[in-house]
């Protein structure tokens, strides 16, 4: 009989923290802004640096060994991203600059080719500007209708209203899995079922979900899934658009140049199959390789363990902050996850963020690129604390203590 | 820098109870300032007769720094000539951005000193825009001439 598998050590955020050099270089830093951008583990920083030192050359071009090696590493990174999302095939993974570019790709390529006046695209009030503004720009060009599914009184997506807004005219539903401004989780599986029942595609903005939970785009059955590398502990400038093969195959290029063609004459050019069709020009090779290292790092920690850790820490945060007089958590519906958006009576978020910074607590203050949502919630700006794999209860305690100090100072 | 140097009593006082905080029915000039970073908005109203600022007021929403700065601005601008107001703005802007403030004429020194509590923002680059928002709107109102010019801080 084989020896029992070595039991995976329990998730320990203090040990995880030691993997991130930023904390050694900034003693006392209470980093609660991972929803804006996560810090990078040494493994990612070193991998990018090592790649440039040992294996770098352009991809898909040279016949020499170094270029072949670089191409192999780049395509291996695509395979890692495929595995991370459990996509059926690596050709369904398009490397982009980030989720913003992923959404723009869908809007301009898919939307530009297939949307007509009379069609409808449905987004939700929970969306980041990146899943609102590109649709508005294309709408103004083409003349389709852009509809918005509302939130309910608790700040969660109003599923009844959403269901009523999906009709046979709806061609696509764009929805966030986890609202960046409030931390409201969206039951995307249910949204996808409702949309597919009417023949609409679904684009999921997975920016905040990707670093925090296990994903399976096949089980989810979304048509597009977008996430950013820098929020998943990877480098900036790289991200992923997942699209189902049949859909990507039918889509025209949106940017054109080298690496995305099969033959060019001045009369006619034929294009590569996906994903190359959507990756014109030299891609962010080191970014893709660094992202793969980050995704491997997350997998090694255990995505179920990460989700459980952040869920528990979110609960601890809710518990701690909701006991504080003068502190109100902004509504996030039935399930708040990883993000705590709050208001403090009598202290503007900008002032609060400056005061928290005096205590080494880094948070985001403002509208979090979700102005329509905050408008709907009746707030102009909030202070947002967002969690990462390196945070633990002491970070929440220090946030609470810093808020208390700010309240004392403003009350004088 | 200690946060009490940034949030001096006078800042908190003007932040909580801004002076001249109302719309003006018939301004000769007005402009809105907007900080897209935080969504803060301020509208500055001016009543200018000849070259003198007879009255000035503002309304809007913002943090303690931007509200206090707008409030203090209205206090020092009232009764000044347009040229004096511009001189104060130039000096104030230089002061909070860490530049060399130009020499103030004797007649404006007291007014300039009243803006000194805002000097602390120069240690907080992200907050300088809060302190200058109302002044930028004031400048836009002067330049725009007519009612309704808009200025953004970025």
What does this structure look like?
- The complex is a heterodimer of chains A (412) and B (154).
- Helix content of chain A is 41%, strand content 16%.
- Chain A has 412 residues and is α/β, with parallel strands linked by helices.
- Chain A has two domains: 13-40 and 302-411, Aspartate Aminotransferase, domain 1 (Alpha-Beta Complex); 46-299, Type I PLP-dependent aspartate aminotransferase-like (Major domain) (Aspartate Aminotransferase, domain 2, 3-Layer(aba) Sandwich).
- In chain A, a hairpin with a 4-residue loop joins β9 (261-264) and β10.
- In chain A, α12 (303-322) packs parallel to α15 and α13 packs across α15 (393-411).
- Chain B has a single domain (3-16, 27-56, 82-152), classed as Sufe protein. Chain: A (Alpha-Beta Complex), CATH 3.90.1010.10.
- Chain B has helices at 3-6, 9-16, 64-77, 82-96, 106-114, 128-144, and strands at residues 29-35, 40-49, 52-61, 147-152.
- The interface between A and B is medium-sized, with 19 and 23 residues.
């Amino acid at each position: 009989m084989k020896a029992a598998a070595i039991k995976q050590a329990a998730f320990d955020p203090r040990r995880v923290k030691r993997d991130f050099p930023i904390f050694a270089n900034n003693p006392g830093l209470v980093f609660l802004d991972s929803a804006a951008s996560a810090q990078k583990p040494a493994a990612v920083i070193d991998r990018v640096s090592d790649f440039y030192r040992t294996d770098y050359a352009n991809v898909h071009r040279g016949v020499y060994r170094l270029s072949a090696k670089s191409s192999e590493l780049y395509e291996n990174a695509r395979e890692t991203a495929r595995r991370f999302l459990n996509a059926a095939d690596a050709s369904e993974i398009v490397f982009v600059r980030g989720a913003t570019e992923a959404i723009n790709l869908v809007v301009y390529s898919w939307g530009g080719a297939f949307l007509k006046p009379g069609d409808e695209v449905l987004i939700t009030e929970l969306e980041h500007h990146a899943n609102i503004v590109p649709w508005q720009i294309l709408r103004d060009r083409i003349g389709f209708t852009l509809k918005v599914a509302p939130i309910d009184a608790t700040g969660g997506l109003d599923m009844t209203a959403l269901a009523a807004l999906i009709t046979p005219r709806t061609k696509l539903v764009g929805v966030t899995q986890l609202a960046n401004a409030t931390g409201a989780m969206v039951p995307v599986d249910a949204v996808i079922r409702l949309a597919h029942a009417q023949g609409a595609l679904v684009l999921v903005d997975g920016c905040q979900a990707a670093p925090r939970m296990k994903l399976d785009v096949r089980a989810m059955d979304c048509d597009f899934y977008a996430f950013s590398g820098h929020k998943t502990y990877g480098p900036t400038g790289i991200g992923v658009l997942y699209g189902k093969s049949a859909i990507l195959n039918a889509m025209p290029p949106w940017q054109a140049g080298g690496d995305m063609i099969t033959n060019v004459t001045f009369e006619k050019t034929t294009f590569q199959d996906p994903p190359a069709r959507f990756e014109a020009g030299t891609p962010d090779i080191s970014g893709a390789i660094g992202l793969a290292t980050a995704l491997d790092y997350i997998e090694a920690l255990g995505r179920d363990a990460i989700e459980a850790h952040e869920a528990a820490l979110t609960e601890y945060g809710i518990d701690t902050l909701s006991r504080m007089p003068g502190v109100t958590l902004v509504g996030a519906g039935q399930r708040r996850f990883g993000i705590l958006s709050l208001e403090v009576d009598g202290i503007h978020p900008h002032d609060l963020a400056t005061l928290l910074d005096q205590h080494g607590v880094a948070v985001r203050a403002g509208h979090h690129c979700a102005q329509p949502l905050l408008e709907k919630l009746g707030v102009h700006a909030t202070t947002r604390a967002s969690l990462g794999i390196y945070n633990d209860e002491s970070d929440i305690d220090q946030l609470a203590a810093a808020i208390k100090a700010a309240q004392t100072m403003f009350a004088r | 820098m200690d946060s009490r140097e940034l949030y001096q009593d006078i800042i908190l006082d003007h932040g909580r109870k801004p002076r001249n905080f109302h719309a003006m029915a018939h301004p000769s000039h007005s402009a809105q300032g907007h900080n897209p970073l935080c969504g803060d908005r301020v509208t500055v109203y001016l009543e200018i007769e000849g070259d003198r600022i007879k009255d000035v007021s503002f309304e809007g929403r913002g943090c303690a720094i931007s509200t206090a700065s707008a409030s203090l601005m209205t206090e020092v601008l009232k009764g000044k000539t347009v040229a004096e107001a511009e001189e104060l703005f130039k000096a104030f802007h230089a002061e909070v951005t860490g530049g060399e403030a130009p020499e103030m004429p004797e007649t404006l020194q007291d007014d300039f000193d009243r803006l000194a509590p805002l000097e602390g923002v120069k240690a907080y680059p992200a907050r300088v825009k809060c302190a200058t928002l109302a002044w930028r709107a004031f400048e836009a109102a002067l330049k725009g001439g007519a009612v309704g010019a808009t200025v953004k801080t970025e």
